[in-house]
Amino acid sequence: MIELKTPREIEIIRKNGRILAQTLKLLEERIQPGIKTDELDRLAEEFIRKQGGYPAFKGYREYPNSICVSIDEEIVHGIPGERIIQEGQIVSVDVGVLKDGYYADAACTYPVGEITDEAKKLIQVTRQALENAIGSVKAGKHLSDVSYVIQSFVERNGFSVVRDLVGHGIGKKMHEEPQIPNYGMPGEGVVLKTGMVLAIEPMVNAGTHEILTKDDKWTIVTSDGSLSAHFEHTVAVTENGARVLTLNE
Ligand code: MF3
Ligand code: CO
Q1: Which among 12, 89, 92, 195 could bridge 109 via Cys, Cβ 3.0 to 4.6 Å?
Q2: Which residues keep their CB under 5 angstroms from ion ligand 2?
Q3: Cα of 57 to ligand 1 centre, how many Å?
Q4: Residue 151 phi, psi dihedral angles, 5° rounding
């Protein structure tokens, strides 16, 4: 069952989403050659706690850290540690905030200094895929219409969407129904309703859509070693479209 949220609940998620967006902004400024990924983790945890929130990933299925930092061919769930960020990399940061009983979830991929043209295009296409998806959300439309928008835009640009990982409903739990694949045919399945809150999160690979899990049991990488980017927002469905809840405003 898909739980619809009241305006009051959506307001709580929006406030948490603002803390989250501020966290990402703070991290963006620090993603520079020479910084260790666990320094980013510490900065994020400190900031979220100072705002009265809890870093939602910490302890989730025994995940050890507060954020995920996934570099280059790492798609998602990279565990912060001693690794040092280098010029030319692309760094995906995924953050969750839990406060007042509700979750917000968002992610962004950042370039480090000068990156290749392919990496720039990958980031741009993934960001635009999320924007197009958000632009397609509206009460009365099918969920698969949103999935179709993501897949068709990404593939038209010569990249592939990850199929084995999905976006999700979000609220009192980080992962609620429905699952939101980043591929599909329009006009199928769930119909969007006002009050649904969704975490939409295209994961886009430069090469194959196939993935592997590393020996650390968390980090998910492209099976061909190609680059991957990830953008995510938490949004509320309304009659007039999507309201993005993970913005710094
Ligand atoms: N942000 C991820 C998602 O959207 C959740 C990561 S949970 C972690 O589903 F434990 F892996 F960090
Ligand atoms: Co998510």
Answers
A1: 92
A2: 105, 199
A3: 6
A4: -60, -45
pLDDT attached to residue 244: 98
Ligand 1 pocket test, pick from 77, 92, 232 with the greatest ligand atom count within 8 Å of Cβ, gives: 77
Homologous superfamily assigned to 7-239: Creatinase/methionine aminopeptidase superfamily (3.90.230.10)
For the four alpha carbons of 211, 212, 217 and 219, in that order, the dihedral sign comes to negative
State the alpha helices, DSSP H only, in the chain. Answer: 7-30, 37-50, 117-136, 143-156
Q: Is the CB of 166 under 6 A from ligand 1?
A: no
Give tens-digit pLDDT for 36-90. Answer: 999 999 999 999 999 999 999 999 999 999 999 999 999 999 999 999 999 999 9
Domain boundaries, the chain: 7-239
Q: What is the DSSP string of 5-34?
A: PPHHHHHHHHHHHHHHHHHHHHHHHH--TT
- Whether 180 is in the pocket of ligand 1, judged by its Cβ within 6 Å, is no
